[in-house]
Amino acid sequence: MTSSELARENLSLKVKRRVKSMLGPWGIFFEGFLRHPVMVGSIIPSSRFTVIKMLSRVRWDECRLFVEYGPGVGTFCRPVLDRLRRDGQLIVIDTNPLFIDYLRQTISDSRFTAVLGSAADVEDIVRAHGHDHADYVLSGLPFSTLPDGVGPAIAAATHRVLRPGGAFLVYQFTARARDFMARHFTRIDSGFEWLNIMPSFLFWGWKDDAA
Ligand SMILES: C[S@@+](CC[C@H](N)C(=O)[O-])C[C@H]1O[C@@H](n2cnc3c(N)ncnc32)[C@H](O)[C@@H]1O
């Protein structure tokens, strides 16, 4: 490589770094999307309107373990930690190492654990962290673009890991996730949030007390 090519490459690296730091978490999210567009499924994190509406049905006083699938850059993590009881725990699971590294570097709360892995392994992950079940599971996964079989497997594992009375909270740009949920959850409440890029379907699947 000639010295002028080297100088050009250094400049381009510097510009990329500068743009990323100006964009903050949005820059990291966009980079995660560029690396794995199908797995991330969105170029921009959820809006605060989606966060507030989605979390509004959680009974925080009864929540000891909250699990989140696909936290990305942590749009939901801080609001969950703000509401979570002092002896509660938040475990987030993401397949993208860029996001997990970012979360570990930016969130220092003893109740928070970021796991690099798949939501399909939620039962092992919950057990490995000393719990028998989760009270709530939140999903930002792009169900409609996950590889064949993964969505149904995640919905089944989530139903098994939840305690009776607990809930599976799902937001997505399409209503497809509801089909996966409906195989296991008999009571599903629905909502919609326009103030999000793209507008989102919201679902709360409740695990029967008798289950
Ligand atoms: C649309 S983004 C959600 C971002 C974030 N929750 C928000 O509201 O802005 C989807 C996330 O799911 C993650 N993901 C995709 N497949 C997964 C899987 N099988 N298990 C865990 N995370 C997964 C992606 O890496 C990405 O972070």
From TrEMBL:
Signal peptide: none
GO terms, biological process: methylation
Domain of life: Bacteria
Keywords: Methyltransferase, Transferase
All residue ranges annotated as the Methyltransferase domain in the record: 67-166
SUPFAM superfamilies: S-adenosyl-L-methionine-dependent methyltransferases
Pfam families: Methyltransf_25
InterPro entries named among the record's database cross-references: Methyltransf_25 (IPR041698), SAM-dependent_MTases_sf (IPR029063)
Gene Ontology molecular function, alphabetical: methyltransferase activity
Stated name of the protein: Methyltransferase domain-containing protein
Organism: Novosphingobium flavum
